[in-house]
Amino acid sequence: QSETSDKSSAESDSEAEVEQVSVYRKLLATLKTSPESESEEEEDESESEEAGESETEMDSEGSQETGEAGGGEEDKNDVLDQEEATDTAEQTLAQEQADGGDTSCDPSHGVIEEFTDVKHESEFSLETNFMEEESGDCNADKRESTSSQACSEDPFKQHMDKELEEKEVEKMSTLPKTSSQSKWPRLGQLTFSSTLEKCKTLKADKEVDVKQLYLHKPLESTWPKVNKQFLSSANKPSDPSFTPLQRELFCIMNTYRDLFYPERNALTNGEEIRHAYCLHALNHVLKANAQVLSNNAKRRDQKPGTDNDDYRDQGLTRPKVLMIVPFRECALRIVHIFISLLEVNDKRKIDVSNKKRFKGEFGSDPEEKPPNLKRPEDYEAVFAGNIDDHFRIGVAILQKSMRLYAPFYSSDIIIASPLGMRTIIGAEGEKKRDFDFLSSIEILIIDQADIYLMQNWEHVLHLMKHINLLPRDSHGVDFSRVRMLNLNNWSKYHRQTLLFSALQDPQINSVFNKHCFNYVGQVAVRNVPLSGSISHVVVQLPHVFRRLEAENVTSVIDTRFQFFIDKVLPEYRDAIMSHTLIYVPSYFDYVRLRNYFKKEELNFTHICEYTKKAGVCRARRFFLKGEKQFLLFTERFHFYKRYTIKGIRNLIFYELPTYSHFYSEICNMMKATDNGVDATWTCTVLYSKYDAQKLAAVVGIDRTAQMLQSKKNVHLFVTGEN
């Protein structure tokens, strides 16, 4: 369900086919399996349908999971009804919880019991340990405590010690935010917004001295070494530890403002960004834990009977940082960065509990992936390593040690996927559900948010609704140590949210605008694309952009469908308009169109993310040979498979693609046809005024302004500039 629930409700008149989590995970499992899938890529026309059928039977993805219509093959008319899930996602999740409760799923091994490390509980307890155990940091802490000025300037102390007043909280709940603009050398156009005070605009630091960043030991010495791989000789000697991008991002992170950065690229800056937010998260946790351990020692040494309220240094539950990432590989990389940042040198290795188990469950076998797969570079970067999307793991950090698989209530950091969070949070009415551990999250990091649009955005929304709520149980907390902000249920106003995405999207924007309440304010990067992905189209092709008029956002779905069947489809019904591919971003729109095409008895075939390999093979062959006039094609199939579809002569984008580079990729598939450029090729795109962001990413900001000001149903002809 990559679409929001209002889109879902608009589909009530179509078949009740909603995607299913277990089916979705099987889709992921196929991404790295069996080289025989390349027979599709070869598109060997002599391949028999029988071979395709046997290929499916051999396929490791199987069809035995609960909820999928069992085993029915497509009939000769290529009707693939049985491929879509028949249960709702909620029913599936409920079934999964009934079957396994707290389960972690590995696509190659099925559902396994979730492991948590209970052996090292006392060793990593914040309540029973003291700072003296690490004399180096203890002395550093004492030195720091003698300098009240140094303490008061530390951004961590400033942020966590700020005591809000009721009238300020009321302001944040009722008043609109004021905003201001600023341009930074590397990040570009920034929008600063805040409710409490007139928005202060930060200035980009030209240079950063690591010693002035208030990094906790040992990060001051380890960060330059760990980050060395991203630094070039162009870096100034006075700024040896950050890239220009990292410097500006960390400058914002370190002020504890919320941040939305929509230009994350898995190929270019993804790892650079990951290192920057890992530094910030670890710095926060080390400072928070050092404060608790230091106060433990002070409390122990104070005279009996002394009632001191100065030691409020904790939340209602221990987890402070929640990191949401799409795949296990991402969690593996994050943990490796943490370990590197904590190890001062080769002689001072840190003790990591359950490291071997972690590598086994989160690592990948390099031999799993067939070497002959040819996919775009960005695909290889996104789907590297272990791409299972159902996981969660607690990490506890105490001085020189790290504990992986810590129980959540004994963890400092939780790393999880949206699905991993969804299955433990559960749904209303379920007996076995838990979200108390999210009550005192101080930093929420959502990385690669665009991928969740391709997974299930509802899981992200579900998480946002359950974060920073008052816990239902006390979980053994010492209330005399709990900060007043947590007791007042004001945690959400102190939570910093860092949101990284590869694109601007209304659904991602909505989470940043509606679910982030940070009292310090927010910073969003808002650069506009100048050229657009249409400039990467290499085939000479007329692009016709057809505007549809909708009264509001919720009516767009129905308006687009009506516009398509009334105005666009009639022009393509003639047999001369054969080889027409219809690209559909939303699965719900795809189901609706497919049902309409069946009802009208049009000559069509279709491919979606649930179509089995034999079905895909057959659909591509029928389409290439012209035996089927139309091919309905979903965006998520393209995202997860990236097959080249041959034989396209006419393209219809039912809606603009989520990823702008998919536009040029799909258009460039036309050159894969053997007979070269054809003057009769066409490309038609449907858009409305609510598609401004997607439109700008495809055609550039200047053309977008012209198109949105033009009258309805204006045909704009543009040709790829290369």
Automatic annotation (TrEMBL):
Q: Which organism is it from?
A: Pygoscelis adeliae
Outline the extent of the UTP25 C-terminal domain: 533-717
Q: Does the keyword Phosphoprotein apply?
A: yes
Q: Where does it reside?
A: Nucleus, Nucleolus
Name of this chain's protein: U3 small nucleolar RNA-associated protein 25 homolog
* Quaternary structure annotation from Swiss-Prot or TrEMBL: Interacts with CAPN3; the interaction is required for CAPN3 translocation to the nucleolus.
Native organism taxonomy: Eukaryota, Metazoa, Chordata, Craniata, Vertebrata
Q: Quick one: where is this thing mainly located? A: nucleus
Which SUPFAM superfamilies would you find in this protein's record?
A: P-loop containing nucleoside triphosphate hydrolases (SSF52540)
Specify residue ranges for compositional bias: Basic and acidic residues: 1-10, 298-313
According to the UniProt entry, its GO molecular function terms are: rRNA binding; U3 snoRNA binding
Region Disordered: what ranges? 1-157, 294-313
UniProt KW keywords: Developmental protein, Nucleus, Phosphoprotein
Q: Does the keyword Nuclease apply?
A: no
Q: Listed GO cellular component terms?
A: small-subunit processome
Q: Which InterPro entries match?
A: P-loop_NTPase, UTP25, UTP25_C, UTP25_NTPase-like
Question: What are the residue boundaries of the UTP25 NTP hydrolase-like domain, all occurrences included?
Answer: 256-523
Compositional bias of kind Acidic residues: 37-62
Q: What does this protein do?
A: Component of the ribosomal small subunit processome for the biogenesis of ribosomes, functions in pre-ribosomal RNA (pre-rRNA) processing. Essential for embryonic development in part through the regulation of p53 pathway. Controls the expansion growth of digestive organs and liver. Also involved in the sympathetic neuronal development. Mediates, with CAPN3, the proteasome-independent degradation of p53/TP53.
Q: Could you say which protein family the record assigns here?
A: Belongs to the UTP25 family.
Q: Which Gene3D superfamilies does UniProt cross-reference here? A: P-loop containing nucleotide triphosphate hydrolases (3.40.50.300)
